[in-house]
Amino acid sequence: MLAPRSLIQEISRQIRAHFRSLVAFHLFFTLLATAIWVPLSAGTLAGLIRRIGRPVLSNGQILDVAFSAWGLLWLLVAIGLSFLVIFLQQAGMMLVVSSPAGNRYRIAINALWHLARRFVSLATLTFLQVGAHLLLIAPFAVGLAHLYDAMLGDTEPYILLRLMPPELWEYLAIAVPVLAVLVALSAALYFRWFLALPGVVLDGLSPLAALRQSRRLTHGQRLRMAALVLGTALLVTAIPVGFTLAFNTLGGPLLGHLPERNSVLIPAMLAYLAIYIVATIALTFLGISANSLMVTSLYHRATGRAPSFQPPAAPHRSGVIAWGAEIVVLVFALGQAGWILHGFEINDQVSITAHRGSSHKAPENTLASMNQAIADGADYLELDVRLTGDGQVVVSHDNNLRRLTGVDSRIDRMTLAEVEQVDVGSYFGDAFVGERIPTLRQVLDNARGKIDLYVELKPEPGDAQTLARKVIALIKARQMDDHAVIASLSPPVIDDVKAIDEVIPATLFVQFVLPGALRTTPADIIGLRHTQATPGLLRAIHRSGRRVAVWTVNNTGDMSRYIDMGVDNIITDRPDALAEIIAERREMSDGELLLVKLRNWLRS
């Protein structure tokens, strides 16, 4: 049943024999799913946010919504519908390869027609399988979340990832074995019901009967089946990765040898992008079809027969519809390529913000790192401010000094005089021994006329309004209100800032932006964790009239990519590296810059 070589040969023969029918079905289904599922999910999520009626931007707010009754309902339905789309596509391909020979377009239309007739059974099977997995995962997720809160809840994720403290390793020592048990149980459940879908689709079984049959057919074969499926998944994943690398490696130099005339270069890049998009669609199709055909072949072998599906009559003119779908795909690829090229702006405008100063060269949030940022060509200096026990505004990311000094002391319980005695430079090297925690007043005096400021508020519970009021007063007293941005990770803090002063620009740092959530904040700028930035999200934020900053970008390739994505500000620990990239790009010809932008788009 599970001889890998013969199975792969059988899958290859099926793809060759039914290639056009599979392609036609894939195109039809993708167009239908995209037209229905994407607007439905975005629209219902936006409706959920409106119904809840409160801001949903910070991590805490998103979690509050996710664990509310409506949020859990939407999340469960969204997960179920996402898997339903996958099940329907796999089921349709199973129908195609199990159909007798005939007109390839009619076979594809017949498959869609039969999916519609069996929709209730397929949806029931999907929700049974997905629901069982969610019930299995739930206690593990809740337990690990409570464990994280107990062991690491007081430590910021940034500190955990950067310093890897002992507490993190202790948590992982417990969490990793627990996750391994969860993965093993989930895999056992998955392969227990691995052959249920073809039972519903090809033999017309009820969902419960199909699950029982799958349990019987896979008994004693699940480990070998898991190894086979995992190997196939790795192979299917490696093909598009290898294609992208080869396409990028070979295509870039070829385009680079073209004459730098827009009449030649732009059509060549248009064709290059169109071919890439079509090839990506084709590779996606091969991956999906290979998985579907593997399940079908295993089912045929397990049952000892190869059922021939006899569908009811399909609507007429299926061939016309199929050709129309293929033309739509080609037009889509050319349109996408043209849209991508149109978005390649030749003149790049991006500001450089030094994250806690040039913190790769000097200790963070000190005058030394700030002066280094000025020397490195930064446009903005990002710094964190908080209140001492006697109400003075000082510059420090952490409230507890243990990370930088090894001393377990809290700034909000110390006087300014005590804070000023703390050495926060020794950890960085002998050259910075004696470097102190500066006050915001000192930073403002040092920065005026040299660099603009990005002031992130770090309040403790209960002092947010006091901190915001004092920071704004200091900025105005030093006449820096036209050269400063106030930032926070907390939407309520941004609300406080805007209530105190509507003119000073405010940045809200967020991890995610849900549809419709931007209406709930008065922030002028949205700061995104750089791993969450996408071209579509940037366009949505810009359409709302806001600018976009990304944090914290230290890889030079990523810096170039985010410039081409259209961000307005890049926050980095390495402002000198970003300044060098911007200077190099200004020296490039239009043709060279277009090629750089193309390479960055491929990496995106």
UniProtKB/TrEMBL annotation:
Alphabetical list of Pfam families matching this protein: GDPD, GPDPase_memb
Higher taxonomy: Bacteria, Pseudomonadati, Pseudomonadota, Gammaproteobacteria, Oceanospirillales
Record-linked InterPro entries: GlyceroP-diester-Pdiesterase_M, GP_PDE_dom, PLC-like_Pdiesterase_TIM-brl
UniProt KW keywords: Membrane, Transmembrane, Transmembrane helix
Protein name stated in the entry: Glycerophosphoryl diester phosphodiesterase
Provenance organism: Salinicola rhizosphaerae
All residue ranges annotated as the GP-PDE domain in the record: 350-582
Top-rank lineage group of the source organism: Bacteria
Transmembrane segments: 21-49, 69-98, 119-148, 168-191, 225-250, 270-299, 320-341
